Amino acid sequence: MKKTVSLLMVLTLAATMTACGAKENNAGNANNAGTTNNGAANNGTNAGGEEAELTPEPGATLLVWEAKEERPFVEKMMKEFTEKYGVNVKMEEIGAGDQVAKLTTDGPAGIAADVVLFPHDNLGKAVSAGLVLPNDEFEDEAKAENSEIAVNAVTYDGILYGYPRAVETYAMFYNKDLIANPPATFDEVKAFAKTFNDKKNNKYAFMWDIGNFYFSYPFLATTGGYVYGNNGQDKNDIGLNNDGAVQGATYFASLKKDVLPLKSGDVTYDIKKGLFTGGTLAMNIDGPWAIGDIKKSGINFGVAPIPSIDGKPSVSFSGVKAWYVNSFTKYPNAAKLFARFASTKEAQLDDFALTGAIPANKEATEDPKIQNDPTVKAFVEQFKNSQYMPSIPEMANVWTPIGAALSDIWNTGKDPKATLDNAVKQIQDANAAASK
Fold first, then answer.
1. If 0-12 CB within 10 Å is exposed, 13-18 middle and 19+ buried, where does residue 330 land?
2. pLDDT tens-digit series, residues 226-240
3. Which portions of the sequence form the region Disordered (predicted)?
4. How far is residue 102 CA from its own chain's centroid?
């Protein structure tokens, strides 16, 4: 009996100590979780040791900025989000490229959207001005689920800010009635051009916007050139006149004689687009935004990755659209939840179905809806060989000098090395002036 009583006393004491310890641990977790300005609980740990779901602030409502073309998708997301979380969401039509400028004034004034969407190359401006919050609550999910290129594009100075939703790059459209099988190399393009080009009748084998650095970037990047080092973050490391860039620019210059005997000013975006939809241009470098107009033209077309250069897969520029949370929002929890909700695999597939946007999510790009669409699949394949445009503010100093250099190399046969050296010097000078 004494042994039994002693055992009961020990068990009772142990149970009491365990309960006290659990109570103290739960209190510590609640304190560590933190609260928002409205007192809503942030992510913490529940009694079972599992991560607690982020919850919207009481009375939260949200405003979202997006372009008119994306309204069908955003309205679907708003409806489903409200059904799940009980938070009303409204949309205001603001073009993606205009949002950072508008957020600069409207954010501090408290009248901006809670959730915004813009191209990643505007991220540097937004972060420098303190306009967006980091994607901290759903960082692991975003990194695991989306393309590494997309994740890196919406990361600035080592911090993830964006919730990737869609990607874009350019690829090669081809007229199937003029060339049945798309060439895999630029050497094949050269061979085809010799038999096809007819300047008098405006018949050309291959075109791209020659003087536009955005579209001519493959000729510098494929052979080893780059804009800024450290994933586009180091303004002091410019790779547009290194050995690889010079090699590519030399190959680029050879195409005037062998593929496209016109001056760069005669091959504008609109001119080449008109020739392609008119049926006299066999191949044209363009982006997914051109698909609608090309379909309307009735051209029997296909899309393929850009032909390889000097035996290497062509490296194009790419862009990433992502949601961001306004740092001045009154409802950061609700805003982060919406940004996450509207950027999942399922959401990105909805966006593709409703607007044609190409997913950033890796599993989504493997979905039959994508893989069974040869046009979209070609853009996905090209994106895998792309480099996202640097998002630092100094990127603005690159376009004009390099575009002019490429035009000089093409039109007048200027030495690629000297011409690129001069362009890089202009970029360096502009960067130095901006930092004073």
1. middle
2. 999 999 999 999 999
3. 29-56
4. 20
